[in-house]
Amino acid sequence: MNIKQRTIKAPVTVSGAGLHTGEKVTMTFNPAPENHGYKFRRVDVEGMPVIDADVDNVTDTSRGTTLSQNGASVSTIEHVLAALVGLEIDNVLIDMDGPETPIMDGSSIQFVDAILNAGLVEQDADREYYHIPYNIHYSEPDRKVDMVAMPLDDYRFTCMVDYNSQVLGSQHATISSITEFVKEIASSRTFCFLHELEMLLKHDLIKGGDLNNAIVVVDKNVDESELQHLAKLFNRKDIKVAPQGILNNIELRHQNEPARHKLLDMIGDLALVGVPLRGHIMAARPGHAANVAFAKKIKTLIKKERSRKHFKVYDPNMKPVYDTVQIMKILPHRQPMLLIDKILELSKSHVVGLKNVTMNEEIFKGHFPDAPLFPGVLQIEAMAQTGGILVLNTVPDPENYITLFLKIENARFKDKVVPGDTLIFHCNLLAPIRRGIAQMKGIGTVGERVVVEAELMAQIVRKQNS
């Protein structure tokens, strides 16, 4: 059963301070059309630039994940994206009047609650998942980071953290399906060690920090004066170290809350792949930099597979639209210059033609007879003949016209073609035919390999004797 894409029913707004900038920001989740994905819009910047939630737009991972595009940036976006993925929402436009998302309570739960209050709506288009095809590995040996994505018909996560801390120790967290996110992961808050907190405070790097939005792990001996200093900084009466080895500012929501939050960050960062995933993600000691590098690796694989799948592989034995005899009734070419054997598909805007390359071709008598290669110039000619069928198909009496090719641009030969290959040419109009002038993009494939591509311009001309 196909699963439909989803967006939110109505706009919903949340406000708060950014963790690092301290700036108050109002963030509005807006419904978005099908295939829109996740996008941020900086409404406080001239022109209201839009920033795609895409791993290629990541510019910083030092203290959260930052995206930059069109002259604007948004930072600490991982908790927001995790909420959207966890709710299985596909399309949202997020308006922000500041550079950093509000930290809220340090988790995703307040974003989740706000979105659920707005409601979700199913759209007409199907959700297209990327299914992890085989084990995809990523590692950083110096940081002891290991990540792997494995095939699974669901979205499952397992995360292990180990900071060589007597207080935190080794922890792991797991969900067997993304449907468990809201209950098991969304409320898990960010955390830091006391020595990190002190360094950040010293350098004024957490202007929006509050002891209500982070778990502070006490990884060293602290005296009363230091605790009193922290209490003063955060406008608190007093601060103590709780038995669990954390500051008593908050109580843990889960015994393994730090590991659950790292899992939350992973979900948010991997949303930057740009498509919903199906697979089991396992990670040891992940962080934003590793998450983003892993997301880039997955996206690169997706792009490679999509480029291969852009052209379907045709059965050479399928019934053609035109066979060789029918082609000769349209094109004026004859042996040895008739280079198309079949037309497999034909519409008003595209055509697919087939050329069987055999050792019996006249050309191989002189063109590398001991190591025969089908010449690139003839590949372009065969592509042009295929395009000629498309162009002549637009006139009522094609036998009375010919096509003159006016221009060939951006021709590239990407792989060799040898006897025994079946060349498939795909030609698509780049614009409607005007005044008998046609512009088209042609691509030649052998199986799943793209071997040649070019942009062609042709003119329809009536034969002089017609």
UniProtKB/TrEMBL annotation:
Binding site for Zn(2+): H79, H261, D265
Location in or out of the cell: Cytoplasm
Tagged with keyword Cytoplasm: yes
Family assignment from sequence similarity: In the N-terminal section; belongs to the LpxC family.
Top-level taxon: Bacteria
Cofactor: Zn(2+)
Residues annotated as catalytic: H288
Function according to Swiss-Prot or TrEMBL: Catalyzes the hydrolysis of UDP-3-O-myristoyl-N-acetylglucosamine to form UDP-3-O-myristoylglucosamine and acetate, the committed step in lipid A biosynthesis. Involved in unsaturated fatty acids biosynthesis. Catalyzes the dehydration of short chain beta-hydroxyacyl-ACPs and long chain saturated and unsaturated beta-hydroxyacyl-ACPs.
Entries under Gene3D superfamilies matching the protein: Hotdog Thioesterase, lpxc deacetylase, domain 1, lpxc deacetylase, domain 2
Gene Ontology biological-process annotations: lipid A biosynthetic process
Enzyme class: hydrolase
The protein's name in its UniProt record: UDP-3-O-acyl-N-acetylglucosamine deacetylase
Predominant location category: cytoplasm
Keyword Lipid biosynthesis recorded: yes
Gene Ontology cellular-component annotations: cytoplasm; membrane
UniProt EC number: 3.5.1.108
Keyword annotations: Cytoplasm, Hydrolase, Lipid A biosynthesis, Lipid biosynthesis, Lipid metabolism, Lyase, Metal-binding, Zinc
InterPro entries on file: FabA_FabZ, HotDog_dom_sf, Ribosomal_Su5_D2-typ_SF, UDP-acyl_GlcNac_deAcase, UDP-acyl_GlcNac_deAcase_C, UDP-acyl_N-AcGlcN_deAcase_N
Organism: Mucilaginibacter auburnensis
Catalytic activity: a UDP-3-O-[(3R)-3-hydroxyacyl]-N-acetyl-alpha-D-glucosamine + H2O = a UDP-3-O-[(3R)-3-hydroxyacyl]-alpha-D-glucosamine + acetate
Molecular function, one GO term: metal ion binding
Pfam families: FabA, LpxC
Pathway: Glycolipid biosynthesis; lipid IV(A) biosynthesis; lipid IV(A) from (3R)-3-hydroxytetradecanoyl-[acyl-carrier-protein] and UDP-N-acetyl-alpha-D-glucosamine: step 2/6
